[in-house]
Design a protein that fits this description.
- The protein contains twelve helices and 26 strands.
- The chain is of the alpha+beta class.
- Among the domains are: 3-89 and 123-201 and 296-365, 3-Layer(bba) Sandwich (FAD/NAD(P)-binding domain); 432-533, Glutaredoxin (3-Layer(aba) Sandwich).
- A hairpin with a 2-residue loop joins strand 23 (470-473) and strand 24 (476-483).
- Helix 1 runs parallel beside helix 4 (126-142) and helix 1 runs parallel beside helix 8.
- The longest helix is centred in the C-terminal third of the chain and has 28 residues, at 350-377.
Length: 540
């Protein structure tokens, strides 16, 4: 077994809270030291908000699990100080191929335009991701950041108590109690916190199963996403192949609904399937095997008083499309700055209701796309299968048919259209991709990139427009980032932010989403937009 699965990264140690005469209150307790919980905690601590992460485990997740990390989450991780090791360790890819039977029908490029710091995707096993995040926690602790990571600590119960949440914890040395002003549940799809609170998911469970195998082998396949419909080695089903670091390859094989999961996971049954795909002469070792069922479900609400759910504890989607961990990182990105402002008394608690609205919008978008992918990959009727096969045949020769092929619409960042924090668009001649609610696309600026200048607070992004050095409203500042279209000779900055406009001013949120935009700076309009983005004048 890979020793990374066995090595404790954050072993249990006795916390001072266990010897306190009364329960100690913490501003934020995060339950779950997976990617979403750690990203949330790193973001909060980087903003100066004290945070405690508890997890009953003390090591990384077993198996590769989430492996495909999209450009937007990588940009978020850049801001958190751990994007570079993700990209350095990961396998970069933009290209993919779609096969029908034995023939390739077409290929695609997920990032055809230039002028982005990060690639479309990086493949990296979740255990490496978690290790990178824990390393970042240790780095922040050494620098004095207010973040704790308590392994071997299980949440036994939670109870809302007015201005806090009472939390009972179990450890190898016995139980103790703490209090949290806010509790963030990032404890996975089987969330014990959700069960303790009597909450559940709504949505669909699809009647199909897929085998995941992590295979260690020295193969000559290119660094691309390969997806097969009805391949000869898995007739009537589908298959997926991805390259990961360390000579590990991810293989997904559709199995159907009526199977014995425990039997199918046995090596004597897995290996023949893989040999049929890879060839009898290919030498490989199994590192990890699992079986998953497609589920597209979410909680009806993500915020329940002072308990807030994020990641898989709040929503589940089928893996095709790489939406699970990517959307969870975007949950963290959306939540942390809002918690900071509420805890510091700079914004009302209603700002957290916008987390509910925006991330439910994101979850619904992911569920819609994942459900469509699943319906295309696994037709539920002979008519649906005939339609799918006809689309695949046409796509080999005709470009118009290729957008209809759905082998898993891959993760894209969510635009918060209709968010109560948005100010109506005052730059109609500007590009649609940077309308209010949109995440800021990257662009070259001087010797670097635009997103590196958006460091986690509000900002006024001014392109060929005059504005004061900073806008301040009741203690919340938005410094001006003054640029010119001439700063980017490639034209990407102008194309992405000006469109047909001669100048533009953007109010950018701490999570790098656009809150408002205008052709020129106006103080009263900018102040009103800043107040709205903090929910002080939230649209109902």
């Amino acid at each position: 077994m890979n020793k990374i699965f066995e090595t404790p990264l954050y072993p249990y140690t006795r916390a001072p809270d266990q010897d306190a005469p009364a329960p100690v209150r913490h501003p934020v307790i995060v339950v779950g030291a997976g990617p979403v919980g750690l990203a949330t905690a790193i973001d909060l601590a980087g903003r100066g908000v004290p945070v405690v992460v508890v997890d009953e485990n003390d090591k990384v997740s077993f198996g590769s699990r989430a492996i495909c990390f999209a450009k937007r989450p990588l940009e978020i991780l850049d801001r958190l100080g751990c994007g570079e090791p993700m990209v350095e360790k990961g396998v970069r890819w933009n290209l993919g191929k779609v096969f029908f039977g034995e023939r390739k029908v077409y290929d695609f490029n997920l990032l055809p335009e230039e002028g982005h710091r990060r690639p479309a995707f990086v493949n990296l096993q979740q255990y490496h991701f978690e290790r990178i995040l824990v390393d970042r926690v240790r780095e922040m602790q050494a620098a004095g950041a207010p973040i704790e990571l308590r392994g071997g600590t299980r949440v036994a119960s939670v109870a809302e108590a007015g201005d806090h949440v009472a939390v009972a914890l179990d450890t190898p040395e016995g139980p103790y109690e703490v209090e949290a002003e806010w509790l963030v549940a990032c404890d996975g799809a089987g969330s014990p916190i959700r069960s303790m609170m009597g909450l559940d998911f709504v949505g669909r469970v699809f009647e199909d199963n897929f085998l995941i195998a992590d295979v260690v082998m020295d193969a000559e396949f290119p660094t691309e996403r390969w997806f097969w419909f009805d391949p000869p080695f898995n007739p009537g089903q589908s298959a997926l192949l991805h390259k990961q670091p360390d000579g590990v390859w991810r293989i997904d094989l559709q199995l159907g609904w009526d199977i014995d999961k425990e039997e199918e996971k046995k090596p004597e049954n897995v290996i023949p399937r893989l040999k049929a795909m890879l060839g009898e002469d290919v030498s490989f070792e199994l590192e990890w095997v699992s079986i998953y069922t497609f589920q597209c479900r979410r909680m009806e609400r993500f915020r329940h008083g002072r308990v807030i759910f994020a990641g898989d504890s709040a929503h589940q989607v089928s893996p095709f499309g790489a939406r699970g961990a990517n959307s969870g990182v975007q949950d963290a990105d959306n939540l942390a700055w809002k918690l900071e402002l509420v805890i510091e008394g700079k914004a009302p608690e209603g700002l957290l209701d916008s987390y509910d609205a925006e991330r439910i919008h994101g979850a619904d978008e992911n569920i819609l796309n994942s459900s469509r992918s699943t319906d295309f990959i696994t037709p539920k009727s002979e008519t649906s299968r005939l339609f799918r096969d006809a689309v695949l045949d046409l796509s080999e020769h005709y470009a118009f048919a290729r957008p209809l092929v759905n082998s898993g619409r891959l993760s894209v960042p969510c635009t918060y259209d209709g968010s109560p924090l948005n100010t109506p668009d005052a730059l109609p001649e500007g590009p649609a991709r940077t309308r209010p609610g949109s995440p800021c696309p990257d662009a070259p600026v001087g010797n670097g990139f635009l997103l590196d200048r958006l460091t986690g607070g509000f900002a006024l992004l001014c392109i060929d427009a005059d504005a004061p050095e900073r806008l301040e409203e009741d203690g919340v500042a938005a410094p001006c980032i003054a640029l010119s279209a001439a700063d980017d000779p490639s034209g990407a900055l102008a194309a992405r932010y000006l469109g047909d406009a001669a100048s533009a001013v953007y109010l950018v949120r701490p999570d790098q989403h656009v809150a408002a935009r205008w052709p020129a700076f106006g103080e009263s309009a900018a102040r009103a937009a800043l107040r709205r983005a903090m929910a002080r004048e939230m649209r109902q």
